[in-house]
Amino acid sequence: MARHYVKNAITKNPKEKKYLEYMNQIEFKERYVNKIHCGDCLDILKDLPDSCVDLVLTDPPYGLNLKMQGGTWGISYRHGDMKKWDYVIKEADIQLCIQKGKNAIIWGGNNYTMTPSRCWLVWEKPFFPTMSDNELAWTSFDKPTKSFRNNRIGNVNGHPTEKPLSLMVWCVENYSNPDALILDPFCGSGTTCVAAKMLGRRYIGIDISEKYCEIARQRLEAVDTGVPVKEQQKGQMAMFPNK
User: Fold this and answer.
1) Are residues 149 and 101 in the same domain?
2) Strand bridging mode 134-139 / 105-107
3) pLDDT (tens place) for every residue of the chain, 243 residues total
4) Residue 134 counted as domain residue
5) How many separate domains does the chain show?
6) pTM metric for this prediction
7) How many CA atoms lie within 13 A of 231 on its CB side?
8) Which of 138, 149, 152, 185 could link 124 by a cystine bridge, Cβ 3.0 to 4.6 Å?
């Protein structure tokens, strides 16, 4: 008989409660952990247990009308054009994340009213088709500023806004413990999940695009099989010579 996953087990019997919690942990791992889930993250996240992940590392969508070969790109911000995901993160939500979380990295944090930071992350992208050559991330860390350079032209793994794997490796390695559970609700081609797997962490990846979910699964399989991925071929993974 298939087990039925219950998000929050409620029972007055202590033994039964402990048993249900144990079975839920098993079911949760089998159903969600170390998997790429295709669907709307707003729906999938509702089914996850409270406080089940150790780190949320994500890059929400932007520039959905991007055209690499000319023409208009970006997204219209006229009244009435907003999608649901435009309401996922607001400035008040960012402040709440900073208050509740132990550490925080906010990409585009220079666009919000933030407390002073001693450690800014700088993503250099001189050849990327944007209106700026750098992207800044505010952090709550008391460390020196860290810079990452991206020399690519176009997409690397079939995704137009993919972050460098070396950047995600740095974030996962420095701000999560071994065997931590990493969540990326906008995982795209799976860079965050690949970084997590390479570093011995567990992951949950979610994306609404079946195309990108399949790319993410192939990249995760490549970590096990040793089949080269494009980042490795381009030398981005020189820090992992045995992979």
Assistant:
1) yes
2) antiparallel
3) 344 455 555 667 777 777 777 788 888 999 999 999 999 999 999 999 888 999 989 887 654 444 444 443 344 433 344 445 454 555 555 555 555 556 676 666 556 556 666 566 666 665 555 555 566 776 766 654 555 555 443 455 555 556 778 888 988 998 899 999 999 999 999 999 999 999 999 999 999 999 999 999 999 999 988 765 555 445 444 444 444
4) yes
5) 2
6) 0.63
7) 29
8) 149
